[in-house]
């Protein structure tokens, strides 16, 4: 049951973070590299806020990755 739920969540995240959000992710990534903490305001807000708080988001993704972790994990 948990694995089915994980697959559903994974698919939801992939759909949520595609297209226009893919462009925003690149912008977000550059701003994170520059030290700007804008991720939670730009895309996938709830998940990014979890990451920023240091909570595990998906698999090995933790706070140091912020938004980038979502795209790496969902690739």
Automatic annotation (TrEMBL):
Concerning its family, UniProt says: Belongs to the DEFL family.
Keywords of this entry: Antimicrobial, Disulfide bond, Fungicide, Plant defense, Signal
Q: Which residues form the signal peptide?
A: 1-19
Q: Which Pfam families has this protein been placed in?
A: SLR1-BP (PF07333)
Protein name, as recorded: Uncharacterized protein
Which Gene Ontology terms describe the biological processes this protein takes part in? defense response to fungus; killing of cells of another organism
State the organism of origin. Answer: Phtheirospermum japonicum
Query: InterPro entries in the record, alphabetically?
Result: DEFL (IPR010851)
UniProt keyword Disulfide bond present: yes
């Amino acid at each position: 049951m948990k694995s089915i739920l994980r697959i559903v969540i994974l698919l939801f995240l992939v759909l949520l973070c595609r297209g226009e959000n893919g462009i925003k992710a690149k912008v977000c990534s550059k701003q994170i590299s520059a030290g700007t903490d804008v991720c939670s305001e730009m895309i996938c807000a709830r998940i990014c806020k979890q990451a920023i708080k240091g909570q595990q988001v998906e698999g090995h993704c933790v706070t140091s990755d912020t938004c980038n972790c979502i795209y790496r994990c969902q690739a």
